[in-house]
Write a structure and sequence with these properties.
Strand order of the largest sheet: 1-3-2
Number of domains: 1
Largest sheet: 3 strands, mixed
Helix content: 10-25%
Shape: globular
Radius of gyration: 13 Å
Number of strands: 3
Strand content: 5-15%
Distance between the termini: 25 Å
Length: 67
């Protein structure tokens, strides 16, 4: 899912169990332990790691920019 309620307002989507090793993107992060060395994470860990990920390449395609 590329967009969701409040996606454009800084919300961070958490997901897991996707049967591959994709870690996600800057605003949508895979929290499955299988992609993070089988270590549980706090929300602060998740948010810090998400900031290091790339922006989803389709982010600007799913909603029109206003302005």
């Amino acid at each position: 899912m590329i967009t969701w309620n409040h996606a454009r307002r800084g919300a961070l989507q958490l997901f897991g169990h996707i049967h591959n090793n994709w870690r996600g993107s800057r605003n949508s992060i895979n929290v499955g332990v299988d992609v993070w060395d089988f270590m549980a994470m706090t929300y602060d860990d998740v948010a810090r790691r998400a900031r290091k990920l790339l922006v989803n390449k389709h982010w600007l395609d799913v909603e029109h920019r206003r302005g």
